[in-house]
Amino acid sequence: MNVFIAGGTSGIGYALARHYLEKGYCVGVCGRDLKKIPESLSEKFKPFQANVCDIDSISAAVHSFTGHENNLDIFINCAGSYAEDVAGKISYEEAEEMLQTNILGTVNCFETARKAMKGHTKGKIAVIASVSGIMDYENSSLYTKTKRSVIQIADAYRRALKPFGISVTAVAPGYIDTGKLRQLNNNDLSKKPFLTDVETAVNIISTAIEKQEKLIIFPAKMKWMMKSLSLLPSFLLNIIMYRKAQWMKDDQP
């Protein structure tokens, strides 16, 4: 089995790479900075320097990984960019990077994966979105809007690729206890409700991909809280989410 993970040099992507290597799969990962990789895992672990915002870059990495057989079983896009702009300012550069990585990068990964799987009448594609993306309200952050777009893009590709035997799984997690999340919050995760540890997240994600789930939202408590909030009138939801963002930023420098 061949598995390729975009954004697999750190965080949940790297944890998924370890998971599939333990199952005996051949795993390729890519990222913009290979120095992030903590260690060389095995001969079946193939790292590539690539940027999901450049379709030629990501395509070349996948082609180098699969070789002339072009046989790819699972493709997971874990690449993403985050900057909060609800209760604070966001720079043009931060906004551009989020739009490029979370939207264009998602499309580039889908295009690369479908071409690699074309003709094999099988394959599983997964993309990491966010639980915030299941909510639709006027004043949501740019990050939330990009992640909502990721879920919708996945839905479009799922419909298009189903006749070819290729499944698409969108993953909408809540807070996962990764090094990146701790870095963004000065190692203080006290304001992150329903926190999921990395091992649990990996098991949930890999199982959802194997079962060809369309959309997996976890943890359950976060899922139902967000779904309940989405039933509120838009003006009230705007107020609640803005105050939540302010509260979460109170301790930020």
Your description of this structure?
This protein has a single domain (2-249), classed as NAD(P)-binding Rossmann-like Domain (Rossmann fold). The chain is 45% helix and 14% strand. The chain contains eight helices and seven strands. Helix 2 (55-66) runs parallel beside helix 3 (92-117) and helix 3 (92-117) packs parallel to helix 4. The longest helix has 26 residues, at 92-117. It holds the Pfam family adh_short.
The major sheet is characterized as: 7 strands, parallel
Number of strands: 7
Cα distance spanning the termini: 46 Å
Shape: globular
Helix content: 40-55%
- When the domains are counted, the total is 1
- CATH 4th-level superfamily: NAD(P)-binding Rossmann-like Domain
Order of helices and strands: EHEEHEHEHEHHEHH
- Report Rg: 18 Å
SS strand fraction = 5-15%
> In the CATH hierarchy, what is the class?
Alpha Beta
Q: pLDDT below 50 for ≥5 consecutive residues: which ranges?
A: none
| CATH topology annotation | Rossmann fold
Q: What's the total helix number?
A: 8
Broad structural category: alpha/beta
Write the layout of secondary structure elements.
Blueprint: E1 2-6, H1 11-22, E2 26-31, E3 45-49, H2 55-66, E4 74-77, H3 92-117, E5 124-128, H4 142-161, E6 167-173, H5 179-184, H6 198-210, E7 215-218, H7 220-229, H8 234-249
Helix pairs in contact: 1-6, 2-3, 3-4
